[in-house]
Design goal:
Mean pLDDT of chain A: 84
Number of strands of chain A: 6
CATH class of the largest domain in chain A: Mainly Alpha
Low-confidence stretches of chain B: 753-763
Order of helices and strands of chain A: EEHHHHEHHEEEH
CATH topology of the largest domain in chain A: Arc Repressor Mutant, subunit A
Oligomer: heterodimer
Low-confidence stretches of chain A: 6-22
Mean pLDDT of chain B: 91
Structural class of chain B: alpha/beta
CATH architecture of the largest domain in chain A: Orthogonal Bundle
Shape of chain B: globular
CATH topology of the largest domain in chain B: Rossmann fold
Number of helices of chain A: 7
Structural class of chain A: alpha+beta
Largest interface: A-B, 23 and 29 residues
Number of helices of chain B: 24
Shape of chain A: elongated
Largest sheet of chain B: 7 strands, mixed
Distance between the termini of chain B: 46 Å
Chain lengths: 184, 763
Amino acid sequence: MNSEQPLHSTQFTPNNPLPQEGLMPDSIATFEPEIIREMDMHIAKFPVKRSALIPLMFIVQRERGGYLDPPGVAFLADKLGIRITDVWEVATFYSMINTEPVGKYHIQVCRTLSCKILGAGAITEHCTKRLGIKPGGTTEDGRFSLSEVECLGSCGTAPMLQIGFDYHENLTIEKLDGILDSLP
Amino acid sequence: MSTELIKVTINGNEYQTEKGARLIDVCREHDHNVPSFCYYSDLALQASCRTCLVRIEKMPKLQTSCTVTCTDGMIVTTESDEIEKARRGMVEFLLANHPLDCPVCDRGGECELQEMVFDWGGLEERFSERKNYAPEKFLSPMIGNDPQRCILCKRCTRVCDEWMGEDAIEAGGRGAHTVIGTYGGWLNCSQCGNCIEVCPTGTLLDATYRHQARPWELEQTVSTCTFCSDGCQVSLGSRAGEVMRSVARDRYVDGINGEFLCIKGRFGHPFINDEQRLRTPLIRYRKGGKLIPATWDQAFEFAANRLKEVADKHGAESVGIVGSPRITNEANYALLKFAKELVGTPNYGATDAFSLVPFFENLSAPLATHKDIRRAQTIILIGGEPEELQPLTGKQIRQAVRNGGAKLIIVNSTPIRLNQAASQFLHINPNTEDAFVLALTDESQAASSMKTLGIEAEQFDAVRKLINDTEGTCIVMFGGELSHAAQVALTGLPAMMAGESRKFLFHPLPIYNNSVGVHDLGLMSGELSARDMVAVAGEGLHAMYVAGSFLPEHLQGQEERLAQLELLIVQELFETETTKYADVVFPAASFAEVDGTFTNNDGLVQRVRQSIAPVHQSRADWMITAGLAKTLGMDFDFQMSASAVFRELAERIPAYNGLRYPQLKDESKPVQVKHQISERRDTSNDMQTLRERVSQMKPDGEKIMTTPNVGHELFKPGTLTSKVPQIHLLAAGNPKPETVLISPLYQITIDSSLRRDEAIAAD
């Protein structure tokens, strides 16, 4: 699914005539027809094409190894008729969109008030110790990435963390170990 | 905006203002100073700096005056303890991450943030947290960036988007960690540097001027840019006889371009003080010999004697005088006078890229100024590529479409970048611009022209409908692609399509800064064009006096013909292809070293002012001509002053009648020349020529489908721009260096294979 085709500057007209050779991602991502259909479904929801940027980013991220790689960014810009910098601007704003490669399991520990008071610090510290990486890092085998994020909206069950799209709530160190052990 | 008047009370004073006016503008108009960083007139609103807070009665909180439109009876307070406290709080936030490194900042002394803090005094910082740190770096060879100084007003991103239509620079990240930057960290835009200009702090920096001078050391001289026909007003900052920078910052200059400049206007100035400038007059005593330095008197004597010899031997018509669209009106006038009164030759011309003589002779509507373009309803662009060749016109078109709702019709064989803004794009076959003009001006030919053009009839009808539905001004722009007959045919358009509510204006797109000036003076109407003169050099013509140099298209690879001349006198800044064959070369002064005027494509006569003394032994072009005339025994009576030359020019050239330097003093109120406008003229001969021309056109080859790369014209190293080292990096494709912390100039060696060889010879 991660096939790519070489990118020619002509492919960027008329949507994206600006970038010159040399600085562009050197290829543009291609996707299976059913993925493209899924994207078109999102695009159809909005009066303006570019509004579908975030849902499409999630799809590209899902299909291309968990992050927006340069060919994926090039694809989004071309698909939505926006500039590469527009994609970059949005991608760097949201912590849910990764612009760097992440591990198979992306552990996002909430560090906002309720979780912090109830021991998010200890949770992060335990993860750091157990996985041997700091927040923002990825283990050498590419299995785990760790990051600290702002409120995930689950304050009633603090402290909590998110792995992929799954919430794990009311955490204790033991519970955390159980979760990490149970991951396939 | 309706013209209904409403009453607004500001600080107890009652004012009348138009309904819908923006509050901050009204306050400033009446001298109630409201500070702001993010507000920039004619750009999208941001309201993020929050320093323009005012109290409006009956509103619960302080309001940002940049987002409030005035309503009737509004009572506003712009100064009170409450407001000052709020504003101080906001600036404290802005400074929370600002490094306060003014002593080493290039913007120190002309920084808006620094000024605001100084104005208030006693600003206290209560944040004890560590500030964000990011190193100073390069975003491109031209643009430096110090992210810490950023106050996130986002003027740069809006300017990049709305003025340039490029979206090259954006804000990435979030919250306090937002940075201004771009994808991949390397800017790949047209390098206009307008983001540097509008930056209120020292975040975006001119990388070519970085750490070279402080603003208060520079003497600012308002002048006119010398690169394209738009005639932007610039402020040249000079120190000790050296031009250090060129800006359009509106504290120094307030011209037609506002704070807009392009890469050439902003970064193209280093040629002025370049090492390779000619230092002394040069004489080649025998053909094939070397150019040997001489004194001015020797050179004048040599040139005068030889010129007299040729004129005596072959007659006055064997002398050709060639002016230049790059030099001042004064210089061209002196040459014209030299040709007509002293030598008495009908063979005079100018080295312009193409002739607009038929257009100006049949002019049927006034020339559109850049202000008119911004307010136009419909813009028809036939050929040309303003975003590369006339960047200010390109910017005005983009703003007219984006902010003014104008309809843009583009007729071009190439899908140029401006297409993104177009309502209608007629993608015609290469070199068939004439057929479009014919289809537009002669309905009987419309149907048959479609095939030549390679477009559908519906597309053309849609264009016609757009023009007919226009209420307001309709501006017709055209580049150098039109033939002479088509230029004449186009002037018939207003008589055909103008209506009560529809006014036509013309905006030709010549290439050089004084192209319109050489046409006005009549230099382009001599018997032989510059190209013809080269063709008959050595046969009909035996001596030539050239200001500037021939363009490659004039020489057409036949530069050896110039060697056939008995005498070639050249006045130039640099050694060029033309000076290779010259017998006498006079070192001319550049635009920064002389007083004079340029006439831009609006027909505006704008002043060029002396910023530095002429370098080495160079002299102003008109002085050289007058000096040579004096040696030949004729006193031009210019009294060594450019204003005297202009006075004489204005007396003799009808369109300039009555103009004097004092009238051209104020760059914010430029004066348009009075071109003769004749509404109805018999153009049937030209129409017939055009019909025949179009009927012979064969749409050959395929349509051009690729949009040209950004900068394909702007980055071309010409005689002048090649003196900017960074231009060569851009011309070589702007490669990203290994590290962005060091200037790419020190990291990338451009080998000759990367360099584009086609340099445009220019003055």
